[in-house]
């Protein structure tokens, strides 16, 4: 009997667990370790952050769902992996520390035959002084509880606006190397929508600030789409959305420090600026969760297994090269660790070979470029591919049988710009492939037949439909495997 | 008398395209959006078919 250990139960980890349980659960052991008791459909957190949904609407109890399956769920955080075992015992294992109430702090060893690292990111608020809801002056929508807190502060601003006070709201990214601009992009439009619905939009100044070179970059180097007889860059549409809603924007910005009511930032031209605010939601940069790797002799081999960012090395080409020599082939295909063949990393947990957007740094040497996105649809695709590979390896295959390169897959993104069944809108965007491939598509790096974007009520319906569909699927309700991931 | 606008220095908002009233209407026109909903679904299915 094989034992498969999955670290993390977010979108990628839980997807892998669902499929492995379906394929192998009856004959083999599947253990899921997550420090969180509840699963979170993160794309809907932006609606929690403006009070249109609650935490209950976007989360559910993991133990309850896994209780219906053969998955052994342990509410704990992973501390270290020991891929060679320890001393003379060559059985690999991971150490975990329980976060389950009543068992907090208990350390346990969990052995494995195959390990999937799906630990997601550490929200690295500490990278920018004064950033974040816990020790800083900004709010976040990265978790459901953060979004609840953000909404509480937003409603205080709405009340102040109703009293006739003028307020400045700043939304975007809180560091020069952030990814996940899409979440901030959705949030700013939903805040705008909420203020309009409350009849106080004219009292508020709303400002976007991000590390993108141009609006609409999203860490993917932007997109080109065919529209109105032209091939047009997404920047045009992103700027149009801002102008239409009277939102100002600042790009090419690295937020250096946040004080109460004041953001200090540096721009790509090397200049330093200040921006005063009354309410600010800034996405933090991501880092690995800090897993250690230890060899049989007890030596720390973290730097061999993980990149300096803390994300796990997989079958990508990590050789440092100038931008002109980057290739779609650099991106991982099987997500298997090159040293330890029973280790895999998926979702945000794998180390990308390099950026997707062009690398930039300010005149002062500060990197100001978005990190590559690897959330949502791509993370589910790589989870399924790795689950299939492990299923086949358990059944005798010598190597991974499936691939899911971000340079060979598309992604769909639906960004809400206001939630209402008849007046709401959302931007629907698809890109193929996620990582531009300039050898196959020399001009724009992408297939323009499969890359498109539009805004409208239909997008809002799609986003609502996906919210309910994916939560139904994640809860493993009857027939969940028939639904697309 | 028509109010004279845009006499200030060029602003950030001066350059990007702004949707016309017709474009804005179509974005929330129920019938048109029902059609677009079907089109978006087809496009997404096509995308998924092409992704492995």
Can you tell me the residue ranges of chain B where pLDDT is under 50 for at least 5 consecutive residues? Answer: none
| Oligomer category | heterodimer
Helix content of chain A: 10-25%
| Largest interface, counted by CB within 8 Å of the partner chain's CB | A-B, 34 and 28 residues
**SSE pattern of chain B, N- to C-terminal:** HH
- The gyration radius over C-alpha positions of chain A equals 22 Å
The assigned structural class of chain A equals alpha/beta
Average of pLDDT of chain B: 89
Shape of chain A: globular
* Percentage beta strand of chain B: under 5%
CATH level-1 class of the domain at 3-123 and 286-394 in chain A: Alpha Beta
* CATH architecture name of the domain at 3-123 and 286-394 in chain A: 3-Layer(bba) Sandwich
What structural class results from the helix and strand content of chain B? mainly alpha
Q: Which spans of chain A have pLDDT < 50 for at least 5 consecutive residues?
A: none
Tell me the number of helical segments of chain B per DSSP (H or I, 4 or more residues long): 2
Strand content of chain A: 15-25%
Give the overall shape of chain B, derived from the CA principal axes: elongated
Tell me how many strands of chain A there are: 24
Radius of gyration of chain B: 19 Å
CA-CA gap between termini of chain B:
62 Å
Mean pLDDT across every amino acid position of chain A: 97
List the helices and strands and how they pair.
The complex is a heterodimer of chains A (485) and B (52).
Chain A: E1 3-7, H1 11-24, E2 29-34, E3 38-40, H2 45-48, H3 55-58, E4 59-61, H4 62-66, E5 71-82, E6 93-98, E7 107-111, E8 114-117, E9 122-123, H5 144-162, E10 167-173, H6 181-197, E11 204-209, E12 224-227, E13 230-233, H7 234-244, E14 248-250, E15 253-259, E16 262-267, E17 272-276, E18 279-283, E19 286-287, E20 292-293, H8 302-305, E21 343-345, H9 377-394, E22 411-416, E23 426-431, E24 452-456, H10 457-474
Parallel strand pairs in A: 1-2, 1-8, 2-5, 5-20, 8-21, 10-11, 10-18, 11-14
Antiparallel strand pairs in A: 3-4, 5-6, 6-7, 9-19, 12-13, 15-16, 16-17, 22-23, 23-24
Helix pairs in contact in A: 1-9
Chain B: H1 21-27, H2 30-50
